[in-house]
């Protein structure tokens, strides 16, 4: 799996307020990469990693658990945890509308007004297969590890579709990247 670094204009908006003295609770829905752990080591953070990409594609069978039950089982979040920051990476591009709604329903009790959110969307549906593994090298720099095989179920979502699905979130900024991805910054309205 090859790796590159990539500047991020929006990640610093989420991470800049981090203070070595303030406790921050972060949910990262990707892999716990070494550079991310090294970055957070200088702060007082409580990290929750749930690499949902390893469980793709999520499906619902007639007799099986629904999306909501699957996400609750995969995340196993303590009832009293509230996240200050959520990193979705490009997970939304692998979930259908019902799965996105279910994920947000499971997360909603763990968010507070002002929870900051970072994600990647797509400018259009022709974007190449995603599912990269993202890490944080610095407040404004990501590491991107490209997979040797595409993950199943990739269907890039444009920002307008995400906004329609994420009605409890305010989309604050978006930046179009050279490869057609959109870097998105949001916050939970509560």
Characterization of the model:
This protein has 190 residues and is of the alpha/beta class. The protein has a single domain (3-188), classed as Rossmann fold (3-Layer(aba) Sandwich), CATH 3.40.50. The protein has helices at 11-15, 34-40, 67-75, 97-107, 159-165; strands spanning 2-7, 23-28, 44-49, 83-89, 111-122, 133-138, 141-146, 169-176, 181-188. A six-stranded mixed sheet has the order 3-2-4-5-9-8. β6 and β7 (141-146) form a beta hairpin. The protein is globular and about 50 Å long. The model has no long low-confidence stretch (mean pLDDT 90). This is SAM-dependent methyltransferase. InterPro entries: SAM-dependent_MTases_sf (IPR029063).
